[in-house]
């Protein structure tokens, strides 16, 4: 693995780990009033574009971490729809 790919993996790891405490809090407290539905929707759409970009150019770290980010975003969306009303 070259330095550029390692940098991509580290950036993706740190970015995605940053979302985990927020998602954990949403699911634990069963409250998602403070999270914006437009934010979650735009986040998932943007990450989907990044995932497509990674697939088109064969960028493994982009594919992996944006796939993980879509899962995390989907968990946030689930929490918002279930607990945000």
List key phrases describing it.
85 residues; mainly alpha; Monooxygenase; 4 helices; 82% helix
Please describe what this structure looks like:
The chain has a single domain (about 5-85), classed as Up-down Bundle (Monooxygenase). About 80% of the residues lie in helices and about 0% in strands. The protein is elongated and about 45 Å long. The chain has about 80 residues and is mainly α. The mean pLDDT is about 95. It contains 4 helices and no strands. The longest helix is centred in the C-terminal third of the chain and has 24 residues, at about 60-85.
Write the layout of secondary structure elements.
Layout: H1 3-17, H2 20-29, H3 37-57, H4 60-83
Helix pairs in contact: 1-4, 2-4, 3-4
Brief summary of the model shown:
This protein is mainly alpha-helical.
